[in-house]
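Narrative progress, year one. The postdoctoral researcher (J.K.) led the effort to move from monomer predictions toward full complexes, under supervision of the PI. The following entry was the first complex the group processed end to end, covering 1328 residues in total.
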Amino acid sequence: MRTLRTVMSALVVGMFLTGVCGVEAWAQMMTPVGPQWWPSRWGPNDEAGASNWMTPEKVVEAVKLIKTGKVYRLGRVYEAGMPLRGQRTYKLTIPTVPTGGPFGKNKLIFNDELVTSEIGQVGTQFDGLGHIGVLVGSEGDQNAMRFYNGLTAAQITSPYGLKKLGIEKLKPIFTRGVLLDIAGFKGRMLDKGEEITIADVQGAMTKQGLTDLKQGDAVLINTGWGSLWMKDNARFDSGCPGIGLEVAKWLVGKQIAYVGSDTWPVEVNPNPDPDVRGVVHQELIMKNGIFLHENLDFTELIRDRAYEFAYIFVPVPLKGATGSPGSPIAVR
Amino acid sequence: MRTLRTVMSALVVGMFLTGVCGVEAWAQMMTPVGPQWWPSRWGPNDEAGASNWMTPEKVVEAVKLIKTGKVYRLGRVYEAGMPLRGQRTYKLTIPTVPTGGPFGKNKLIFNDELVTSEIGQVGTQFDGLGHIGVLVGSEGDQNAMRFYNGLTAAQITSPYGLKKLGIEKLKPIFTRGVLLDIAGFKGRMLDKGEEITIADVQGAMTKQGLTDLKQGDAVLINTGWGSLWMKDNARFDSGCPGIGLEVAKWLVGKQIAYVGSDTWPVEVNPNPDPDVRGVVHQELIMKNGIFLHENLDFTELIRDRAYEFAYIFVPVPLKGATGSPGSPIAVR
Amino acid sequence: MRTLRTVMSALVVGMFLTGVCGVEAWAQMMTPVGPQWWPSRWGPNDEAGASNWMTPEKVVEAVKLIKTGKVYRLGRVYEAGMPLRGQRTYKLTIPTVPTGGPFGKNKLIFNDELVTSEIGQVGTQFDGLGHIGVLVGSEGDQNAMRFYNGLTAAQITSPYGLKKLGIEKLKPIFTRGVLLDIAGFKGRMLDKGEEITIADVQGAMTKQGLTDLKQGDAVLINTGWGSLWMKDNARFDSGCPGIGLEVAKWLVGKQIAYVGSDTWPVEVNPNPDPDVRGVVHQELIMKNGIFLHENLDFTELIRDRAYEFAYIFVPVPLKGATGSPGSPIAVR
Amino acid sequence: MRTLRTVMSALVVGMFLTGVCGVEAWAQMMTPVGPQWWPSRWGPNDEAGASNWMTPEKVVEAVKLIKTGKVYRLGRVYEAGMPLRGQRTYKLTIPTVPTGGPFGKNKLIFNDELVTSEIGQVGTQFDGLGHIGVLVGSEGDQNAMRFYNGLTAAQITSPYGLKKLGIEKLKPIFTRGVLLDIAGFKGRMLDKGEEITIADVQGAMTKQGLTDLKQGDAVLINTGWGSLWMKDNARFDSGCPGIGLEVAKWLVGKQIAYVGSDTWPVEVNPNPDPDVRGVVHQELIMKNGIFLHENLDFTELIRDRAYEFAYIFVPVPLKGATGSPGSPIAVR
């Protein structure tokens, strides 16, 4: 009996892995994050996710929010000593000064900088669609690692950059932005591991006079945790407040395009459910093509009580990158 | 007599280099690029150059140009095989897939990318104020290398990034953009070493129905040379058409903020004057704080005959970098 | 019938991949490179391969070959412009001069260099045991990639270095070295794709007065191809002469420890059998733990007719690296 | 009067900097580290320093010390988490596994590693002749930075590696090695800032039965401080015991070639004279061409009471590098 079960189990795995039965059969199976999430809302070949919502109409809607012309830079400076996750690196040097020259009778000289970094995954970082996936089979099997639109690691990766889902596939983000000042609503910096609820979000919106979230919006969530940046990196990095699956799914329902926060993962960490890690990343990026932007700085927006604005971010089109550096701006 | 002259010359150099007579005395002296160009129009401590012209009023002016909401990405994809000057490098790898995980019962996995590059000086590149200078004394002496606002290499450089004039000091670029389609005006791709004249610029403006250039504008110059990108890199890199000192000084007079082109140096190369190299860089960046953006792609703008638009670029704030990667956008 | 076969095949693969039947069952199966080659001669936990033959006795034997004290450096200089395979990189910069200082009244200054490279796989390169493997199942499945001692990619790899079979596990190479001057024997530089035969090896040995190869020896093979290094990189890189499986297996029979050559892969390329690539790498490194050292320079040895010597190489113990830079020496 | 003095001072500096009076005149002047130290003992064009003492005779002398054939690896493993000075970096990744393949019907796969590091100046590091200098004039002036053989920074440096004094210019080190176990002599690990005296050295030699130091010898100094490596990096890095100028000059007198130790700078730190930093580096490397090897591990040598041996180290010939990674070996 036990032998039969073992054989059958091997058979199923074998069928899955070798694709004997096609993708369809397996499509009905549950993954560690629930049922199959593909094809995407934008079709089986889409690699742009929610950036597809960046239509001319959406741009025009956003532009109408610009009244005074004040521009807010929301990204942090990339520098040695900033918090870095795991073994990530950020190194910038200036080769011998000058790096070039003198040239000509005008004695031109120039300097370069040389950077080595997981440049899309350090500091203020925009997570692309090739960044987050789930393992649905044997550890180490790239055919059993699924990403946005059901693509496998074997399908998207190569040593020298992603073959699919690279950051260069996205459309520039130009949309309506909304800042939800949860810390302002609660009157305090939120705690590590504190999950933001739908009630919190709605309470903040009411307090701030915001009435709705619309398709394609960029939603920015202020937890206050960003005040620890470069002040207390150890605490900053040890966890953070943020949204959990409840709010994530609610935001998916609103068809927003983009969630940013002043924390390193946007989502609550550790998750109140001790068995999961990064589930909001999977829900938003992998399943719905909605982007995360981490380590933003809302200080000036909050000082000006600026809660609604045009929101602009153009990912640096590094071919095959998983994310992008750079600073979004809010304009109003 | 000759000895005296030698001694006097040594004396003068000594005075200069040791600063005995103060900066003032030397200020009257000629440098290889003409008389002293500092303090800057924005004061002796300015490190933001023409990005200071990015005022709320300028933003509002630019926003008025947005009618349809169409967004044009003007930057090229960064990729292996793109043209690189000199010994510059562009390398992107994906560490072992997955780079992290699986984590939790949700079996989260993630990928990173690792980039090594002169990231602000490869591909589509925005030249900052610490990139370009002039040697005004002994080769190798950082005190005799002058940059924007008269700062010396000794004052601005360090092994781990510029101490002054770093790209992070700039304000986001949000302004009126104007495309001068010189190739369209001439009915052909311009040649290597062909200098664009004021007459060319005015002819193109007339043809395109453009009446003026204003303070703080971004001026984009299409030469057609960009059509060689990734098609014939050797030729692309061997030189290019572009503006020379004549147009550069005329643009300075117009107080524009920014010049971009579809070539690697914006300026004509080789210069018709065989004795000089990079003089437009010195005139615009070093002396006037006006930025250059190289290796742009105007294909779509030209297809749509889009000559006037809101122009947006936010340099990636890499502390102490000489330039920035990233893609500007035109919106109209 | 066909269905049954398909199911059975899936079943077998499933058994293999999931390890239901243990390693033993599969052990009898054929891989693309023949039957199972593990456990290694040095046991199932060995990670040092043929460096285990570097015993004190072998050192003493090698030392007896030192008569005059003349030292030959056999490694090439690492430099920009050297031949590199595929997308490999070699980049060295000196951060701003000086990188540090001045410090103290003694005004100490210092310079560093910053290197980015596949440092164990560029220029003169020593291939370690984690470098070469074979795929025995589905592409992309790290459990189906086998290396020395049967270890899988899943078992040995991590994003930040090999967990097993890293170069730091090897013992320093100190042994008897023998140079087989095949080009000298043939009176000419060998051709691209020209496979060296056992007859060639024996002919060269006879001509050079060499009578035997012994357990643990380092065997160096001169093809003359190295004369193209930095002279005609395109041709150098386009292929090369070298040993094939015939000589490789003969050398395995001799229990030698190490094969070096003046070509980039040691083995003939392209292989006379157009269906295979890198089979000598698999035979020597993966199956027998015998090391390859590529891009050596025998010019001085040949000038001195130095065919037998003490041979010394200490891999740079980069934790988890697949290979090592550095220059071996011959001493006699 | 004051004006005259100022002018005269400017004149002298001017003469010096512009070379009016030639190098000879200045040669008589004092530098921050004493009188002119060039031309070197090996002539004004030498770039190999004390590696010139690696003669065949010296090799033969060293070989005679090999009796049992036991090999000791003295270098530490390079790994994430090892002590690093200042902003130096050590990063090793494995690009997507496999980095290459599968190729051919033999389904060859291979892995690479990608390293970014100040590779000659991290972990076990061998300091070359371009690493250490002195400033003898204005800060920032590369003409006023002197190195071995009087070469200036302007003469030796370039952005992409040293033009002179690069590590590739050295001859392989193969010499008599002597271990001075100062910790063993004192019966304890030495303290931070504790300077080893000539009496200590002589006491240790007597205790260990060593009678002399000879021209070209490698002298290894055990302080016990190395026991902190990867155990208490903060303390390890905070300073160390070591030799000062007294012993350094005594060693120069003995014409030894090489000093290694189990600390990060070989020399005592902080120096008992609070006004100086790195003076032993200047005395040995810059003035006398004698090499330093830092962060060695003598544990096994001490366990075996192995005090005299053949000592072998071949710098990795990275063109234009200031130092070298790699592990020396002792053989006896």
